[in-house]
Task: structure prediction
Amino acid sequence: MRPLQFPAAPPARMLLRPCLTGSAMPSLLGHAAAGLALNAAFTNGHAPRRTWVVATLCALAPDVDWFTAFLHLPYGHALTHRGVTHSLAAAALIAIAAMLLGLRTHLRSPRIWLCMFAAAFSHGLLDACTLGGVGVAAFWPLSHARYVCVWQPIGVSPIPLSAGLFTRFLAALWTEAVWIGLPALLLVTATRAARLRAASRWGGTSLELP
Ligand SMILES: [Zn+2]
Result:
């Protein structure tokens, strides 16, 4: 990733408006698909069904910062969209909250801990891969710099959706299908194949979570 250089600070209202009417993220579908795929990969099918729900919520959680668009904070402020809540530190906190609130019976499973953290941080990574919107404060609080990926193949999804933006939404959805949906499907298929192979090697005994 490379740091995103901010232009000289323009009036906050002008810059916050795109957060309200424009676009700055993959759709919720893209983030949810990433959470579901990571859950499938990490838990390998040996986990309660609620881990699917919790992992998906972890993948969506960083966008709770949308309300800050109404606060008229300066451009690039840590609390604005794609700031604090999209950092590695926030991913760790989201994972802790998810485990304590939704998966308390699995607190001893490092695999599920890692799954929740990966699901939460996948959000920031995918946002950094979108062509548009502000960068991600991935290393907050160590650095306030916003980062975007060198390669940004994912189209941004118009939020909120209106009739005029529907074509753009469909185009963004297509890029998500290719660059998020397809890799997610490959990840699920590969981990499932590995699991079946390991099970056959052990005489049909499936592998259990730690
Ligand atoms: Zn986001």
